[in-house]
């Protein structure tokens, strides 16, 4: 809701990469931003994104869908600057040369502050972290390492830890979230990092002064408690299924457990009382 609200007045929108959890989608699930909800402004904001040279077919389709909204085009911005905005070259989405492709980082300078948005770099590439430090940021938001992935080996875990320490030493405020907080061990990792650096490192909830609630780390349990019928997401994307009917079905199946389950669901996704 906040993103949609901000889009009402935004002059510029930056798409760091074309994974489905980072942009509005034509076929969004309930947890994603739907293109249907974008504000209908006569003057559309400028849109900047990474180049399209290493996009998969699914990413190309998302980009093409977005062009129906950003009618003035999506500008490939890697290595460019525009007013207070500067954009990095493409850097790896985590481990270099993985199938996940690359992302573009953004530096925003305003009123003496320099904010760097470096989502999904996972701190797994030394050059990307060096590029952030060269930008002399005051605040950095980055996705920490995906500790929940078994394939993340000991060398990579060490690399992410060292890069996190390096960043914390050079930057005033660091927020690490997204991939990091998908693992129940993340709070301890973050707190160990704060201790090792002698300075508090935040997750997004800390930074906003809210309690840490690691819903993504509890995915397996949540899906066991709240099973999603097969093909439900496809039907939802077509407008043939709704959150309300989902909860009706769930209530019928588990009517005495729904109270505890509901507490774990974001309020905007809960059905209105009837
Ligand atoms: Zn991503």
Molecular structure report:
The chain is of the alpha/beta class. The protein folds into three domains: 1-77, no CATH class; 80-214, no CATH class; 226-269, no CATH class. The protein contains ten helices and eleven strands. Strands 4-5-8-9-10-11 form a six-stranded mixed β-sheet, with no helix packed on it. A three-stranded parallel β-sheet has the order 1-2-3, with no helix packed on it. Strands 6-7 form a two-stranded antiparallel ribbon. A hairpin with a 2-residue loop joins strand 8 and strand 9 (113-118). Helix 3 (126-134) runs parallel beside helix 4. The two termini are 23 Å apart. Bound molecules: zinc ion. The site of zinc ion (ZN) has 5 residues, from loops.
Quick recap of the structure?
This protein is of the alpha/beta class. It has 10 helices and 11 strands.
Shape: globular
H and E string: HEEHEEEEEEEHEHEHHHHHH
Read across the widest sheet, the strand sequence of neighbours is 4-5-8-9-10-11
**What fraction strand?**
5-15%
Distance between the termini: 23 Å
Low-confidence stretches: none
Roughly how many Å is the radius of gyration? 20 Å
Q: What share of the residues lie within helices?
A: 25-40%
Ligand inventory reads: zinc ion
Mean pLDDT across all amino acids: 90
* Overall domain count: 3
Total beta strands: 11
SS-derived structural category: alpha/beta
Biggest beta sheet summary:
6 strands, mixed
Q: How many helices?
A: 10
Secondary-structure topology with pairs:
Elements lengths: L1 H6 L4 E4 L30 E4 L7 H10 L7 E3 L4 E2 L2 E3 L3 E2 L9 E2 L2 E5 L2 E6 L7 H9 L4 E5 L10 H17 L2 E5 L8 H12 L6 H4 L11 H7 L6 H6 L5 H12 L3 H5 L12
Parallel strand pairs: 1-2, 2-3, 9-10, 10-11
Antiparallel strand pairs: 4-5, 5-8, 6-7, 8-9
The site of zinc ion (ZN) has 5 residues, from loops.
